[in-house]
Amino acid sequence: MSRITRDELRRRRAAFVEKAGQAFDQMLGDDGQNGLVTFEEREDRACDLGDGLTRRLLADHLAADESANPGVEVACPLCGKAVHCDAPPPAGQAEMQKRAVRTRRGTVELARAARRCSRCRRFFFPAG
Q1: 3-class DSSP assignment, residue 91
Q2: Does 58 lie in the same domain as 15?
Q3: How many domains does the chain have?
């Protein structure tokens, strides 16, 4: 089951469309130029704005990824034994570990469920 509802998708789409409109305004302003004179200024602004929108799309897509948290029990990749999340938060969700990931367009936050196999004594992130 997806971790994100249709209402949440609609909310995120509206927020993205608003950000895209702001990017348009930052590029063109009220006069179609917004103080940008040289080609380099125009290209730099367009690339910065586009990269920001790309990072936002990627972050929203990662947040909707149901494989980031596969549930309460998964198999250890080393020994193959079942690893149970002893004290899952409500709704069977495991605690999510967040980290910054460098992409071609800048840094985005990635959240994944971490597990610890008591037999192997290793932490791992379930495949997904």
Answers
A1: helix
A2: yes
A3: 2
Are residues 92 and 35 located together in one domain of the fold? no
- The per-residue pLDDT for range 32-59, each reduced to its tens digit, is 998 999 999 999 999 999 999 999 999 8
Backbone angles phi, psi at 120, to 5 degrees: -85, -15
State whether residue 36 is helix, strand or coil: coil
Q: Which residues contact 58 (CB under 8 A, 6 or more apart)?
A: 103, 105, 108
pTM score over 0.85: no
Half-sphere exposure of 80 (CA within 13 A, CB side): 0
Phi, psi of 55 (to 5 degrees): -60, -40
Burial 9-39 (b: 16+ CB within 10 A, else e): eeebeeeeeeeeeebeeebeeeeeeeebeee
Write out pLDDT tens, residues 10-39: 999 999 999 999 999 999 999 999 899 999
Q: What share of the chain is helix, strand, coil (3-state, %, to 5)?
A: 40, 20, 35
